[in-house]
Amino acid sequence: LSLTISICNQWYFFSWIPFSGSVSMKSLSCDNDYSSHMTCKWKEHKEAHDLLRITLYQNDGIQNENKMPCVRDPERALPETSDPYIFWVCRKNIEYFGIGINHIYSFKHNKTLETQLNVNLFQNVQPLPPQNLEVQESSGDFFLTWTAAEGSQWLGNALEYEVTYKRDWESWEKDALRLLSNTTRCHLSHLMMGSRYVARVRARVQQAKGFSGTFSEWSTDVSWETPEGQEPIQPRNLRCLFNGVNLTCSWEVKKVITTSVIFGLFFRATPASAEEECSPVYEKVLPHIPYVVQSCAIPVSNISSQSRYHVSVRTKTEEKLIEAHKNIKVLPPTNVSVKATEDHEYELRWKKHTFQYNFIKQKYQVQYWKHNQYNETLQTLNISNDEPPFIFTLQMLSPSTKYRGKMRAMVNSADYQSSWSEWSEEFSWETAN
């Protein structure tokens, strides 16, 4: 797409905020048992899934990049829900774990999302605003004066000005496109697909015809809608303006698409230049329409009337480093039981989850309570020893009482991090009189 901009541009008065990445990548989390498999969870917008369909890939730097098998998370797959997201769970067998092995995850898709523009700097100028405004009175008349902004000397005498003023309680009128025509028919250009437009017309006499006067009142508004384009997921309305310092480019992207992928602005200052990426990208969310406006400013160091930039907007690959040894989720203990000892104490035993490396220790948490009295008698124990047994002393239990309990595990080594495992199956025992 090549475009020469020779019209007044509409700028939206919303604050810019840094664009920090897609919802899908932000939601991605992965944990592993540090033995045989990796489990990842993430979410994808339902409408973006219908339009784009991204796929999760994993790369450990040892083998080639591999697609992770994913299914809808059965814990979040409710048949009737207003949640706009699909929740995915992905599981992959892993042969090697180690501190030096990094797993990098990325989302990919099979569509080419890109828009391009060749920009002639001197054909896309937006001067800096005038400064040093001053009002002077002379013989009852008032005059507004100003000077060109500092840094505009390169424009020479090429500047012209439009003056507008209002009473302080009036609002400013904003028009996206301004066209002059000497016939009763004109072409409405630069319309965006899938948009609603409104137009109005006013008239004045031409001084060249020997007349003078002012504009008429505006006609009654007429409105219409343009049809949706063939590729609604493509970036659109790419345009650039040069202010003597930066070439600022903006474009529009369908809002739901940015929940799955991110877009970058790439440029070449000359055909022979290496392609560079503009950063940072900012974003404005526009209310009531399904698009966002993104923008980036390219610094220009060498100004020439022959300068012609080639700019391109396309999707970028996001990556997230997830260190396996810092995202371990231990499997819960099994075969948990409590038995009486010869000393009339009670011995807790369990079978712990086995890692690839025996030097990784675990710690445990036990909750136990009297049968049918969970809320009133719940007790929590923290066990730091890696191996069983743990002894319940007589002071910890009541005689002739039925107890129930459950147990979970966590890594207890300085160089490794994990979350608590799920709770084990409940176990029970009864104390003697």
Broad CATH class of the domain at 114-121 and 229-321 = Mainly Beta
- The helix content is under 10%
Low-confidence stretches: 1-13, 166-172
Structural class: mainly beta
Give the CA-CA distance, first to last residue.
88 Å
**Shape annotation:** elongated
Describe the structure.
The chain is mainly β. Among the domains are: 91 residues, Immunoglobulins (Immunoglobulin-like); 101 residues, Immunoglobulin-like; 100 residues, Immunoglobulins (Immunoglobulin-like). It contains three helices and 30 strands. The strands form nine sheets. The protein has a five-stranded antiparallel sheet with strand order 1-18-19-15-14, with no helix packed on it. The chain has a four-stranded antiparallel sheet with strand order 2-3-7-6. Strands 5-4-8-21 form a four-stranded antiparallel sheet, with no helix packed on it. This is Cytokine receptor common subunit beta. One of its GO terms (cellular component) is external side of plasma membrane.
What is this structure's SSE topology?
Blueprint: E1 17-18, H1 23-27, E2 29-32, E3 37-45, H2 46-51, E4 55-59, E5 66-67, E6 70-72, E7 85-93, E8 102-108, E9 114-120, E10 131-138, E11 141-147, E12 196-199, E13 222-225, E14 236-242, E15 246-254, E16 262-268, E17 276-278, E18 282-285, E19 291-299, E20 308-316, E21 319-323, E22 328-329, E23 334-340, E24 346-351, E25 362-370, H3 374-377, E26 379-383, E27 390-392, E28 402-411, E29 418-419, E30 427-430
Parallel strand pairs: 22-29
Antiparallel strand pairs: 1-18, 2-3, 3-7, 4-5, 4-8, 6-7, 8-21, 9-20, 10-11, 12-13, 14-15, 15-19, 16-17, 16-20, 18-19, 23-24, 24-27, 25-26, 25-28, 28-30
